[in-house]
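Following up on my earlier thread - several people asked me to post the actual chain instead of describing it. Fair enough. Here it is, all 109 residues.
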Amino acid sequence: MAEASAVEKEGEDILKVAAETPALIALVPSGRTMESPAWAETLQKLSETYQRVAFVIGGPNGLSEAVLKKSRLQLSLSPMTFPHELARVIFLEQLYRAFTILNHEKYHK
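Reply from S.P.:
Thanks for posting it. Predicted structure:
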């Protein structure tokens, strides 16, 4: 039960930091998967709809139910499991890729 307590505490901390963020996006293994062009379109819509967007990658034990309930979108990078440190790098690359798609650059191909 120490793991569950740690996840809940981490969730409280996340929600405090993101309290003023209107769009919280949770990256979780069970989230929605999408191809890069669809992700770029989703990112465009998020940026047009919300002044600020926060992306949350949980620790090794996942995210709390409170964080998941507050999230506007639950997104999965892959059905595979990655260490959360590596997930950050993969997600940053996907953000970069989405912006290249939106700017009609050739990186994503």
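The radius of gyration is 14 Å. That should answer part of your original question.
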